[in-house]
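anyone seen this seq b4? input:
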Amino acid sequence: MTNTAPSVDLTQLNSFGVVATADGLLEFNRMDQVTDVIKLTQQQPYLILGGGSNLLLLGHLPCQVIHVTLSGWRYHDETNEHINITINAGENWHNMVMQTLNDGYSGLENLSLIPGTVGAAPVQNIGAYGVELKEYLQSVEAIDLKQGKLVSLDNRSCNFDYRNSYFKQNIGRFLITSVTLKLNKRFKPRLEYRPLNELAETATSSNSDSQSATSTLTALQVADKVIAVRQQKLPDPDALGNAGSFFKNPIIDKAHFLRLKSQFPAIVAYPVDDQQMKVAAGWLIDQLGFKGVTHNGAAVHTEQALVLVNQNNASGQAILELSKQIQQKVEKVFGIRLEREVRLVSEQCVTEYNFSNDNFANISHSPDSLNL
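predicted toks r here
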């Protein structure tokens, strides 16, 4: 269904809850609309929108918004150890995590309560508490809007990296329609990150055999812990507009980290490899006293410095300005340039690309691809 009103209100379609409008809106909720979607994108500027949980909208968008609300899922290809699930892009990510856990399958428990839709998950390569989506993703089905075809990308083709992917590198080119994940039938807890290792410590305290202790844990218990921690630290977007972590945790070389460590002994970081460290961006921001700082209705959350919030009818521009203040101060003090995890969307709804460098070697086109 296409809304052709002169201006479409997007305030309820972004988790920051900032006032924003667009020229029009297409609700993409059936696969028989694929032809309509492709034609629309060939005729005018567009923005692909899922849950709106990783975007900062800046005023009026002179484009058509394609709101992806495809629903449904199915299990298939079951073995003794694993089972696959294909989930349509419009499903709520957290709801599907809980669905799989309640069905007795594990793997996604550390990714509980991450906001947004399933279709947005591969774009960001979402991750939390030592687990990333790429570890479980088998394939992504999408519309290649440049070629006008349905395509399937395997894990390798997605070019996953930390909060990055082939889809993010080519924003606007692919409209993800479904995602296939391989889940575990036997639970293997991932408790390396604080405070999840508290679960292992608690279990071990009542059982001298640490391996046996952790084997009594369930995936749902881990999910419950993740949910409790996130609810304690992160505001509910329905109550206080936000997009979760606004910045990525920066990765720096070890020499840089050691210099910072000598100046700031309490700095929080985790090894990436022998040469690099991932620094907690929230710690950097907190050290500079930004918690609770406000700017024209925007604010840094009082409990988690990594989260910017719409505290009092802030505009997208006000939130952006506050983020720039943080970036400038962090770079001045620590020599680290924070990179936004949240995507900015303004007049230019679709980024210009250099398609001449595209590599399609590992992209398979579905038999029912549309050649328009």
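DSSP finds ten helices and 22 strands in the chain. The chain has a mean pLDDT of 89. kinda curious what u guys think
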